[in-house]
Amino acid sequence: MNQEKTRNLPDVQSRFSPAHFKLTRVGVTGVKKLVSIQRPNKSSVLPLTVTLDLFVDLPATQKGSHMSRNLELVSEIIDENLKTPVPDLESFCEKTAALLLERHEYATFSEVKAEADYFLDVTYPTGQKGSEPYKLVAEARAKRNGELSKLIGVKVIGMTACPCAMEVIRKLETVGKHCPAPTHNQRNIGTLMIEVPKKTHLVDADDLIAIVEQSFSSPTYSILKRKDEAELVIQAHNKPRFVEDVVRSMLSAVLRKYKHLPDQVMVIARSESEESIHKHNAFAERVTTLGELRK
To answer: Please, what is the average pLDDT of the chain?
Structure first.
């Protein structure tokens, strides 16, 4: 199709909307791209398979958003990224969010969310070296007035042991004094996100992973021998945790770790336990700022 015919095609999205309601977020989800990361403290480039969600707001007067512009923009940024890697995933999101507003002249707000698999070197209880999977998450938001914000975070899978059942069993005196009381366990998904302010040190995802993992009753591993499996279960039972405990532990560790960050920095701490004896999950969350926590 030549350019003349393309110019003559109808622009349905730009037509007047018959229902006069502004939409908060319109865009595309589940866009998969390969993003190259060159972290300041690392010599090698880290390739990440990233799943992206890209949104802008839509005024009441416009029928639809030009969603193909989102995909064109990401492809252009990725082409550039292959030549010049970005320092971190949140910076990639921040740049994309700012450019979305340039492509969507009718929008006043843009948002980019990213999630990627991430592997971290660990030492298993056996002493064997290996790597374990985690999730990196990043978000960025831009406003027409020039405001930009970005967050970096992680999702970590661990284990929690229920304190409630443990105390009930201990009360019933069904176990010996030198053994931890039995209780039911949960697989817990802990999420921690921190806003990264401008003109400050980077927030390292590895540090966030350590904070979340230490907030569980115990971490989980891909490889466990029988003896190590037993010791891990005992470790978890010696440190029983509700989902509320996991969130509060993360918040306490964030305060200790990030004393240098300003009060307005946003913090999101979330814990969800996939229950073993119930058909529902347990959930706890705190969305706050460092200033509120410091009070």
So the answer is: 87
